[in-house]
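1st attempt posting a full record on here, be nice pls
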Amino acid sequence: MKRLVPPAAIAASLAACLAAAPNGAMAQMSEDQQVWVNLTAMGSLKDRLVYFAEVQPRSGDGVDRLDQLLLRGAVGLKLSPALTVYQGYAHVIVPRDAARDVNEERSFQQISWQIARPFGGELSGRTRFEQRWRSDGDDMGLRLRQMIRFEKPLRTDAKGPNALLWTEPFIALNDTDWGARAGFDRVRSFGGLELPLGGASTAEIGYLNEYINQTAGRSRMNHIASITLFFRH
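the predicted structure (as tokens):
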């Protein structure tokens, strides 16, 4: 690790991340059309002990090839009906043409909570702190992610779909020898529907926009068809 972000700069970076995307449009921006699929199983293990496990294949380059495969799981403790803490681990495979795949290992801590119920909907948050190691470097990268999510029923009964919006900025906290740079890393924004599948299981289908802040004045925007299936028990 070569440079740490001072704690006082973290809040400023979070506040600036929404303005970074429009500014990035004036720099060199590349764009891609992708499809992300997320299959997640989640539920209770015993008493207040809970878990989730997910598989996420992500296709890129105009959906012509597998861009990334993410395997992630976590065990959590439900502190209250509105607050759960998790410890998790993720393995990420990044295929490369004519070269060895890049593998990333992540340990992460997560806090999920319900914030409020404005406008007849539900506002919730998820904070995730990641420790990252990659096979093409030696440093450990530190990254903070903050999701804010709002869902609102479109019908008066509980059987109909929900409108769903969420956004999640990513802040890198240090430089690494494998390419991470301290500061604003990316932001993801989603708009779509949450659909009931039976029981407590749901599907979330919609458009996901990912803006990535790259080096040397370059940026990237991914236009993503996002399909997430949550199997709850």
